[in-house]
Amino acid sequence: MDKTKDNKAGQMSKGSGQAYHAGPSFDASPERFREAHPDDQFSGASGVLFEQAMAQTRMAICLTDPNQDDQPIVFANRAFRELTGYSEEEIIGNNCRFLQGPESDPAAIAKIRTAIEEEDVTVVELINYRKNGEKFWNALHIGPIYDNDGKLLYLFGSQWDVSDVRAARAEELYAKEMARELSHRMKNMFAVISGIVNITGRMRGVESEAREINNRVQALGRAYETTLDEASSGNIQIGEAIRAILEPYDLGTGRLILKGNGAKVPFNVVSGVGVTLHELAANAERHGAWSRETGRVEVDWRMAGEKRDELVVSWLERGGPPVSPPREDLGSGNAIIDRLVRHSDGTIQRDWNTDGLHVTITFPAS
């Protein structure tokens, strides 16, 4: 190995993450460490392997000497120097606490101290500071290194900048909290709507119509309630919404068979699917398969299209009375379904088979 070579061609990444050279680059610090501690080091091929591993790894690594006062750092590889912004001269001889600052968690520091005292292995995440004062979340992994006689020789520490990971966790937690709050508010909203519909129905003497409207409102509420936790990610498993809408019609009787997979769709697809399936279920109770004890309904769903950007829902009724196309009525369930599907830019096909209605609906899900 050419000891004078220092490949500066690799570029260092910018931003909040760790700065690393793009490719292997010679780092003389492992060799200097071995020369300074000849009695403690590997020999022969193992020594060369140590040098190569410490010089070329992109993981920030340091060694401290627990047998000296204040456990100073005795080795820090290039990745450690690039992570912290300090030079080798500024690092060697200092205790690792020089990376701590005002926002470093005392509980995490105490955990580190306990692991050192007990010669244990531990991993902690705490805020550390670079030389320029920039703080970062450091996932610190520490553990003991022993010699062949079992004597504690060094403490090993690896550092990983997890600032981006922590930020993603925080965003996910915030999104979940917002989803729970939104779920609570939507439940209240649907309850208020139901109350208004009931009062209006009684005042105007149209209670049966009010109940029908309320059933639709409640179906929509169930569909949203089961999917709000996933809404923050942009896509939700439509199967959860479908089950929430249809299972109240089954109540464990086995008259409903759900065969769909784990298809994920945008959150805005829920309303169209929810109310459409509710209308199909209500029609099946009044006129179709569920109007007889022997009737069964199979519901399947899948993604289709060249870009798998279409949700296809299949509704198949069996064991009910003979069915035929109903008369045109703008207020009927079928008319409502047609308007919902058109509003969603979808398509619907009905086959009035002798053994039951078969409906295939396609919703755009891009």
TrEMBL record:
<dbReference type="Pfam" id="PF13426">
    <property type="entry name" value="PAS_9"/>
</dbReference>
<dbReference type="InterPro" id="IPR001610">
    <property type="entry name" value="PAC"/>
</dbReference>
<dbReference type="Pfam" id="PF07536">
    <property type="entry name" value="HWE_HK"/>
</dbReference>
<dbReference type="InterPro" id="IPR000700">
    <property type="entry name" value="PAS-assoc_C"/>
</dbReference>
<dbReference type="InterPro" id="IPR011102">
    <property type="entry name" value="Sig_transdc_His_kinase_HWE"/>
</dbReference>
<keyword id="KW-0597">Phosphoprotein</keyword>
<keyword id="KW-0716">Sensory transduction</keyword>
<feature type="domain" description="PAC">
    <location>
        <begin position="122"/>
        <end position="174"/>
    </location>
</feature>
<keyword id="KW-0808">Transferase</keyword>
<protein>
    <recommendedName>
        <fullName>histidine kinase</fullName>
        <ecNumber>2.7.13.3</ecNumber>
    </recommendedName>
</protein>
<keyword id="KW-0288">FMN</keyword>
<dbReference type="InterPro" id="IPR035965">
    <property type="entry name" value="PAS-like_dom_sf"/>
</dbReference>
<feature type="compositionally biased region" description="Basic and acidic residues">
    <location>
        <begin position="29"/>
        <end position="40"/>
    </location>
</feature>
<keyword id="KW-0547">Nucleotide-binding</keyword>
<keyword id="KW-0600">Photoreceptor protein</keyword>
<dbReference type="InterPro" id="IPR036890">
    <property type="entry name" value="HATPase_C_sf"/>
</dbReference>
<dbReference type="GO" id="GO:0009881">
    <property type="term" value="F:photoreceptor activity"/>
</dbReference>
<keyword id="KW-0285">Flavoprotein</keyword>
<keyword id="KW-0067">ATP-binding</keyword>
<dbReference type="GO" id="GO:0004673">
    <property type="term" value="F:protein histidine kinase activity"/>
</dbReference>
<keyword id="KW-0675">Receptor</keyword>
<keyword id="KW-0157">Chromophore</keyword>
<keyword id="KW-0418">Kinase</keyword>
<dbReference type="InterPro" id="IPR000014">
    <property type="entry name" value="PAS"/>
</dbReference>
<feature type="domain" description="PAS">
    <location>
        <begin position="46"/>
        <end position="119"/>
    </location>
</feature>
<dbReference type="GO" id="GO:0005524">
    <property type="term" value="F:ATP binding"/>
</dbReference>
<feature type="region of interest" description="Disordered">
    <location>
        <begin position="1"/>
        <end position="41"/>
    </location>
</feature>
